[in-house]
Amino acid sequence: MNTTSGTNSPRPTPEGPSSADRKSADHQSTGAAPPAVVAPSKDGALPTTDTSERVAILDWTMPQLTQWLTDRSFPKFRAGQIFRWIYQRRSQSFEQMTDLPKDLRKQLDSAFEIFRSTTAAHQHSADGTEKLLLQLADGGRIECVLLRDGPRRSICVSSQVGCAMGCVFCASGLDGVERNLTRGEILEQMLKLQQLLEPDERLSHIVMMGMGEPLANLPRVLDALEVAKDADLGLGISPRRITISTVGLPPAIDKLAAADAPYHLAISLHAPNDELRNRLVPVNKTTGINAILDAADRYFDKTRRRLTFEYVLLGGLNDSALCARQLVQLLRGRTAMLNVIPYNPVPGLPYETPSPDAVLQFRRTLLDGGINVMFRQRKGDDIQAACGQLRRLREREPQVIGISKQK
Length: 407
Known about the structure:
It is built from eleven helices and 14 strands. With 407 residues, the protein is α/β, with parallel strands linked by helices.
């Protein structure tokens, strides 16, 4: 679903850059500046009104900003300075960019905004995890997470307002999907989470595992990740430390492979057979596990990047020894890692975390079958920041009807 709302045109839209500008500019992907959006959200939150018509600079590419500067008789190299201030020096305002001329800073402040969202809630977990609830310019809300694990500083980033995939145990899809996020809204999450770090800390890993289906918003996700991995002007995060998660959309997986994207792919499997997966992940009815695995194999053949399969373990549903044996048959022989995540409870949902004995038996069966498996440690579940718990917060929880545990 790609339904970015709003029709207002931004004021300082540059003309397209020349071919010479493209060659000399940074290799961030190009794209038109999106319109400013001011519309009521479906959850009733009041929109923020941008009467200044300033443009989100995070939605702009290097060629676009370079053209804007040259149109105003500023040298091209200022574009690199501006982006380094934003992505590497954590600047929150143009006034902080002290090596820029005052006149340029004034014009930038009149034309652009660095951050367009506001932080509606900021929660801290006992294990060091932090979660932000961000209210976007049109009133929509998303969540993103910073996870601390030893020296690692990982961030979990959303790609859509809500989610349309309908996984029955996941909080992100309870309210459906409103729209895709823009490139700038994806990058803004990264920067706002970066702001939570101490000056001597830096982001090390990105997982596109927040709200939404990243492959349903693939162009904007790839545009944002181009900036994230850019060591010169962006965040400088190695693509080997960036993971894109998907519920399994074979045509989109093939597009990701065709784009030569250098990222890890994580596929949320959650069941070892179509009958059960159709109940847990309704979108599976139009795909099927075999088609997903075939697409995953093609991705591996093209990229040679080890695949990851995610499996949320639900008590009494997909945690049996039979399910484990079927999972072994599916994954044996593939260059892949299986991440098993014991279910993180979600208020309003009836599903249960499996018993310790069930987890132990499931693990033993997988290891005996030769599967490369990791049981993920819970982080941030006390603030509803763990896997499957992110959502747009409401004043009251919805009424949810769960699936039957019996066939």
